[in-house]
Write a structure and sequence with these properties.
70% of the residues lie in helices and 0% in strands. The protein is mostly helical. The chain has one domain. The chain is globular, with a radius of gyration of 18 Å. 14% of the residues are buried.
């Protein structure tokens, strides 16, 4: 597999992570209101919290997302990207100052922490010993 295909795979993974994060930001409060049990699944909520913590920490450290760095390294200085890659890159990478992203990611992380408190995940279930 050549570097352009690997870059496209990293871009697809990046898009999946973004979709997961955005889905959780909407599904958790909506699911709490609608009574959807999956929004209280502890491992799913912990994964969502951890994913957004990584995003916020990278931004606060002044670093680009490691997926962005990998994609840039793999795609190199390609003169013309495929159309789908240009479209997705246009959706993901906005030409704004880094401080805007840092403030946004930090605020989103605070929002996710608040959701953890306001819509707490269900306690973990431990296997029973079988005794009653």
């Amino acid at each position: 597999m050549d570097r352009d295909h690997l870059a496209a795979l990293v871009l697809a993974a990046h898009l999946a992570v973004i979709a997961f994060n955005l889905f959780g930001l909407v599904a958790i409060p909506l699911g709490a209101w609608r009574g959807w049990s999956f929004v209280r699944v502890r491992w799913w909520r912990a994964l969502h919290l951890a994913s957004l913590a990584v995003v916020a920490l990278q931004a606060l450290a002044g670093r680009a997302c490691f997926l962005t760095i990998w994609q840039d390294d793999m795609s190199g200085a390609a003169t013309e990207q495929p159309l789908i890659m240009r479209v997705v890159n246009g959706l993901i990478y906005w030409p704004l100052p880094m401080w805007v992203f840092t403030a946004t990611y930090a605020a989103v992380f605070v929002y996710v922490l608040a959701l953890w408190k306001l819509v707490p995940p269900s306690p973990s279930r431990r296997p029973s010993s079988g005794r009653r």
